[in-house]
Amino acid sequence: MTIRRILPAPSPFTQPFWDAAAEGTLVIQRCADCGRYQHPPRPLCPGCGSVAVAFEPVSGEGRLWSWTVLHHKVVAGMEEALPYACLVVELVEQPGLFFVTDRIGTDGIDSSQWRLGAPVRARFDCVVDGFVLPQFDIVFKEEVAS
Asked: Rounded to an integer, what distance in angstroms lies between the CA atom of residue 125 and that of residue 28?
């Protein structure tokens, strides 16, 4: 199966995010003046307007805030991946700090186990054309205990 994902076009504001993902770390931009996290990366803080923003490692943990399973063509090139899921994750570091990702393949489509607020954890094994695309997995009770 050949899936042509839309690949990122790194900029000076996003390159540190992609470099960290390649190392298996989730980093999110944070304002040095007010402490607010922001994603996607921007040149200034939407909270206080400061330009003192830099990337910081975060836990990679969050909660499933929303999802949908796509069964028809929405993104060109992804037809071979149908059905696939689009997830919205709220990271634990800050209320309203959202990360949008997809899940391709049967392991990501069993939505019978998904529920709003379910704990999730980042993983970094999805590599496409040299880019590591952060993904999230549901953390089941037995995994939380370990």
From this structure: 19
pTM: 0.87
The β-bridge relationship of strands 84-91 and 98-104 is antiparallel
Q: Which of 31, 32, 101 is nearest to 60 (CA)?
A: 101
Residue 88 pLDDT class (50, 70, 90 cuts): very high
User: What token pair was written down for 19?
Assistant: 């470099």
Residue 99 has pLDDT above 80, yes or no: yes
Q: Nearest-5° angle of CA 96, CA 35, CA 66?
A: 15
Contact 114, 64 (CB under 8 A): yes
Q: Give Cβ neighbours of residue 12 (< 8 Å, ≥ 6 apart).
A: none
pLDDT single digits (tens) 28-52: 999 999 999 999 999 999 999 999 9
